Amino acid sequence: MANAIDVAAYILEQTGSVTTMKLQKLVYYTQVRYLVTNGSPLFEDRIEAWANGPVSPKLYHVHSGRYMIGRGGLGLSGSSDALNYPEKAAADLVVERLGSYSGEDLRELSHGERPWQDARKGYAPGDRCNVPITVEAMRSFYCSPSCSNPVVG
Question: Which residues lie below 8 Å from residue 81, measured CB to CB, with a gap of 6+?
Answer without folding.
Answer: none
